[in-house]
């Protein structure tokens, strides 16, 4: 029919079943006159209806809800046997490593130090990677200090800035020290303190250095396609680096 979207075109363009249904519905309204028979709808109306239908179809763009993750098998790299002899031992080792404070050079920093609370970081003191007059070194953050950037109209990025700070909240890591050696039988490595930048030093005493990002939860991270806030950790497992087979050094 003149001007109507063919179902095949819709299917080609939008793939998902629901979207095809939306196209059928759209065509039905436009041409079979289900609602508007005989009223001679204008192009503006057609476009408006078209966008409405596509918006409804778009709601389903992520595919069907998979339900509880308990019933979804944990994805495994197909080439795991190439790197791992004993999976059970690996899982035990991984869990041990995750909670082991000896992993950090001061003997007090584990993966879980940052990924402790529901897999994420709920610490509120000394969590600034950049400080400001209002948010100084070793500051205890409070709820009313968030968000750091406030606009008069949140929907308009050209509206007046009501509050802004150069400070960046992240996750506390290690004190700045120079590594010398590991010490057999000791949780902490040997080393010595080194002067740090003003953001990590208070009255000549170092505080923990803070990364520029807050810690995301690791719970169910195995289901993530790519990891880290910017998705830079590839889904392709090489057992060598996080960057998948795009890593030029492999
Ligand atoms: C100093 C705090 C800190 C420690 C210690 C730490 N992490 Fe993280 N972790 C982070 C931060 C911050 C990110 C996000 C980094 C980014 O997006 O660039 C992250 C991201 C992750 C992610 C990706 C999660 C996601 O949703 O993308 C995993 C998995 C992870 N860490 C596992 C570990 C393991 C395993 C260890 C120990 C070997 C560890 N982390 C130690 C702070 C930490």
**First and last CA, distance:** 56 Å
Bound molecules: heme C
Strand percentage: 5-15%
- Low-confidence spans: pLDDT under 50, at least 5 residues? 1-41
SSE string:
HHHHHEEEEEEEE
As laid out across the biggest beta sheet, the strand order is: 1-4
| Beta strand count | 8
Shape: flat
Tally of helical segments? 5
Q: Classify the secondary structure makeup into a structural class.
A: alpha+beta
Radius of gyration: 27 Å
Query: Portion of residues in helices?
Result: 10-25%
Mean pLDDT: 82
* Largest sheet descriptor: 2 strands, antiparallel
Structure summary:
This protein has 250 residues and is of the alpha+beta class. The protein has helices at 7-14, 17-32, 43-58, 87-99, 111-114; strands at residues 128-130, 150-151, 161-163, 168-169, 177-181, 190-193, 201-202, 205-206.
Give a structural overview.
With 250 residues, this protein is an alpha+beta fold. Among the domains are: 7-58, no CATH class; 100-219, no CATH class. It has five helices and eight strands. The strands form four sheets. A two-stranded antiparallel sheet has the order 1-4. A two-stranded antiparallel ribbon has the order 2-3. A hairpin with an 8-residue loop joins strand 5 and strand 6. The longest helix is centred in the first third of the chain and has 16 residues, at 17-32. The protein is flat, with a radius of gyration of 27 Å. 11% of the residues are buried. Mean pLDDT is 82; it is low at 1-41. Bound molecules: heme C. The site of heme C has 19 residues, from helix 5.
């Amino acid at each position: 029919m003149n001007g109507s979207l063919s179902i095949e075109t819709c299917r080609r363009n939008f793939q998902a079943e629901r979207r095809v249904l939306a196209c059928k519905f759209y065509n039905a309204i436009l041409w079979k006159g289900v609602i508007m028979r005989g009223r001679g709808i204008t192009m503006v109306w057609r476009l408006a209806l078209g966008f409405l239908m596509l918006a409804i179809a778009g709601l389903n763009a992520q595919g069907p809800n998979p339900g509880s993750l308990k019933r979804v098998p944990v994805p495994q790299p197909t080439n795991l046997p190439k790197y791992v002899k004993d999976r059970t031992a690996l899982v035990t080792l991984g869990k041990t490593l995750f909670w082991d404070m000896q992993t950090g050079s001061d003997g007090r920093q584990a993966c879980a130090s940052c990924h402790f609370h529901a897999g994420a970081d709920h610490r509120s003191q000394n969590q600034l990677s950049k400080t400001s007059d209002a948010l100084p070194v070793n500051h205890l953050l409070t709820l009313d200090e968030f968000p750091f950037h406030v606009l008069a109209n949140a929907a308009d990025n050209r509206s007046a800035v009501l509050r802004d700070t150069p400070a960046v909240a992240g996750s506390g890591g290690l004190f700045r020290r120079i590594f010398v050696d590991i010490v057999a039988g000791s949780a902490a490595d040997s080393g010595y303190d080194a002067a740090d930048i003003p953001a990590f030093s208070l009255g000549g005493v170092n505080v923990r250095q803070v990364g520029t990002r807050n810690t995301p939860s690791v719970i169910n991270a195995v289901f993530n396609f790519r990891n880290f806030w910017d998705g830079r950790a590839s889904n392709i497992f090489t057992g060598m680096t996080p960057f998948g087979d795009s890593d030029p050094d492999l």
